[in-house]
Amino acid sequence: MSVLRPESTESALNGAFDAVKSRSLTRLAFERFARNKVAVVSTFILLVLVIMAIFAPVAEMLTGYAMEFQDRNFYSAKPPNWDAKHFLGTDQNGRDILVRVIFGLRISMIVALVAATVALIVGVLYGAISGLVGGWVDVLMMRFLDLLISYPLTLIAVIALAYFGRNIYIVFAIIGLVEWQIMARVVRGQVLSLRNSDFIEAARATGVPTASIVLRHIIPNVIGIAVVYLTLTIPEVILVESFLGFLGLGVQEPNTSLGVLISEGATRVEHKPWLVFSPGVFLVLLLMSLNFIGDGLRDAFDPKDR
Amino acid sequence: MSNAILSLRDLTIHFKTPDGMVKAVNGVTLDLQEQEILGIVGESGSGKSQTWMAPMGLLADNATVTGQAVFDGQNLLALKPQELNKIRGTKISMVFQDPMTCLNPYLSIAVQMMEGLRFHDPSISKREAEKRCVAMLERVAIPDASRRFRQYPHELSGGMRQRLMIAMALLNDPQVLIADEPTTALDVTIQAQILDILRELQRERGMSIVLITHDLGVVAETCDRVAVMYGGRVQEAATAQGLFESPQHPYTIALMQATPRVEADAETQRLAAIPGQPPNMRVPPPGCAFFPRCPVAIKGTCDVSPPPLEARRDQHFCACYKSDAQQILKEAEHV
Amino acid sequence: MSEAPSKTNPLLKVSNLSVHFKQGRTLFGPRPALRAVDDVSFDLAEGETLSIVGESGSGKSTLARGVLRLLKPTKGQVWLEGQELGGLSGEQLRKARRHMQLIFQDPIASLSPRRTVEQIISEPLQTHYPQLSGAERREKVADIMRAVGLLPDMRNRYPHEFSGGQAQRIGIARALVLEPRLLVADEPVSALDVSIQAQVLNLLADIKQERKVSMLFISHDLSVVHHISDRLLVLYLGQVMEIGHAKSIYERPQHPYTKVLLSAVPRMQVVGREKRRRIHLNDDLPSPSAKRAGCPFASRCPVATSQCKAEMPKLTDFEGRQVACHFPGIALEGEKAA
To answer: Is residue A111 one of the residues assigned to a domain?
Structure first.
């Protein structure tokens, strides 16, 4: 193959190619994320919370109190007592709050993870199919979403509870099935704009088969945005769980969740504020860190920046 | 006889970005004379637009501006926003490439025009304001002006919208109009019309126009004086005739040779392309910004410090160490 | 019906091509279709470059996509090397795409953002020559990169790391790697700065010369196509106004629209600019969906008569080219009599 005239070759070669290392878009996104201080701090907090939740039994060992253990000396909710190793006080039944909060955190996180995974899988598939197929299939699928959105989430959860009994995991799989709507819409929007983009047309013009177009060009460009909305879905699910717990519809004794703990404490907030304070702080930390991470990821992946 | 109406003195604009400082404009000193059309030519990244957005206070928040922009004895860069607001739209107006970004699609043209007029002078009666607006629309050759006046922006064609923008910019009888690529988004037939209108209006009203463009042809057709920008600096400034008859700066010469023309002999199929890429303004070259692409550059001189803008002859300024660049390049062309 | 290709047969033959877009319905029935391309015919010889020139809304990009069958034409046929593309099955068409390639206006948007240059350029090879080994493919990619003026070392970089001009070279490399017979360039330089524009135009001129590829060059800019066209097709509202050898059209345009278009191009000549006459048009661009009997340009034409508004002129031979005007060669006001 002949090389064309030197001028046209040279011209591109001696271009201003600075000696920076090549970085992919994903890489660039993470570099931008790393520059976002709030997001980095949030990631750190979330990591600590996750580790606490995973190693919840360690708290039992450290304090010497099992989650269900009722300390007779500390009945009817006593304030924190460091000598007795009740660092955050006890509840009505003399159970250690620190231990219960950590176990509550664990349940809240598991439940959120279940729901979010369901939301991710269903949402991405649904959105991608709707956007790719288009036409009346798209219209039908989107109208179905509108239908789902018009049902209040809590109502669906309550009905599901009545039907399946109080198996929290089933309930949250169902919440996940409802929570994927936003994900599906976002993914569909992304797919639609990708479908009309020049580089997809370029692939079509070259004769690349549709399956390869989806695999090579569409999916890699959808994943980023799906992850962003995943991190924003999780706090929403946790909030729903807490609300159900608050209504008394959450996990059953002796298990607990942050929501259940808050609802128990809320009744006595005037005289015994530590009952609601500790789970409240954990819930706020968890929600805020997830939200900031989500925001940080969204900014980092935002294609407008490049 | 000609006096400067807007003077830029050592204007520097840097943008702080996550990937480092972008040194967009690096010491521009330039006068806009009374009653002239000054063309600012440059490619993207030359800093041509920023240079004129700065005095209007229209730069993004991450910009640091130093230097002066003197208008009417005042340094516009030192004014408070509300003081600048009084000047903007009345004494200095701006027209942009895309009219739709400046028009509110939900308000009628009447509402938007009258708002601008009465904001700066609340004493005008509604009827008087209407009359002036319609007259202005007629002046920019919008057919059926009184009907158009009642319509909404999306009902106009692209060319008509741009003429509407010009009409709105001129309502308060400004002394200076800054037009940033006003015809770039338009078809060539419509462009010719807009340029003619600008020229006529400038003569009629005795105002000054800054015409920012990437198109040398537009400059040649319209402007009295031209400044060529590259790498955030003025490389050459001259009368339009002086510049096109005898360009001095190697960049100007190269740009002219690289521009395709309808009037040229098409048998010479190849254009004289400028090799290389425009400079990365995060790390601009230490010397002349054109050094890496310049055919007559002197190593050890041009890449050390940027050449100053010096007078070559009457009204012709050039920032180049090589004073005989023109002859050398001309001879090379004929070989 | 397809004839065997012979020396006299053109590489590409487009006959009576129309692309209309449905525009939905109103309460009172279907809205008229948008006639983006209306009854366009032309051919393209081997190694020839035909420029399609028109302003926004002239349907030039739609025409390109209709020819490449990225859009389904409403009417008409396209023959590439004697093969009618409309008669091909989906799979046959996909395979035939290796002979015809497209270059885009926005170079960076036309490159898949999360793939490396190597992946982008080798995708057509993977698609049409899956039997090639990885090493052979890399070899071909390196060759073509060098040929368009890119360093093969850049192969692992991503599109966003390139300037517009370099990205356009990548787009050109992707289009050339299959050694197509037909190259359709849709405004390939209008997003680029003048200095870079010249580089890319020269590259395309070189490609044309050294690879004997036929090119459809689509542009709104008469000065850009001046340097690359053998022939010129002037399109207005989806219809051909004038078609013929570029040189003669530039020197002696015969259709009023071509004259207006040429007169409006700014010249780099200050002296005498006051006297130079630019013919003004009103903005009354008729909607491309409006039913019209006459010439599409009639509403803006400075010399239109009632006949023009009533009857569409046929494309007829005039002075060595074809002009669709009832009064070909008519002098416009302010124009020097020839």
So the answer is: yes
Sorted by sequence, the CB contacts under 8 Å of residue B309 that are 6+ apart come out as B29, B233, B234, B235, B237, B317, B318, B319
User: Is there a contact between A8 and B283 if contact means CB atoms under 8 Å apart?
Assistant: no
The ipTM estimated for the assembled molecules is 0.87
The verdict on domain C12-324 having CATH code 3.40.930.10 is no
- Asked if C54 reaches chain A (Cβ–Cβ under 8 Å), the answer is no
Tell whether C55 lies on the interface with B, counting CB pairs under 8 A.
Answer: yes
Q: Are A126 and A272 in contact (CB under 8 A)?
A: no
Please report, for the domain that includes residue A144, its CATH number: 1.10.3720.10
Q: Is A14 in the B-facing interface, judged by CB distances under 8 Å?
A: yes
Q: Determine, yes or no, domain membership for A229.
A: yes
Nearest residue to C137 via CA among C156, C117, C118: C118
Domain parsing of chain C, residue ranges: 12-324
Mean pLDDT of all residues belonging to chain A: 80
Interface touch B262/C250, C-beta < 8 Å: yes
List of residues 6+ apart from C145 with CB closer than 8 A:
C117, C121, C151, C152, C154, C155, C173
pLDDT tens-digit map of B69-111: 999 899 999 999 999 988 988 899 999 988 888 889 899 999 9
Residue A16 is assigned to a structural domain of this protein: no
The whole domain housing A115 covers: 23-305
Question: How many distinct structural domains can be found in chain A?
Answer: 1
Please answer yes or no on whether A208 and C150 come within 8 Å at the CB atom.
no
CB contact under 8 A, B260 and C193: no
Give B184-229 pLDDT, tens digit per residue: 888 888 898 899 999 999 999 999 999 999 999 999 999 999 999 9
Q: Is residue A218 domain-resident?
A: yes
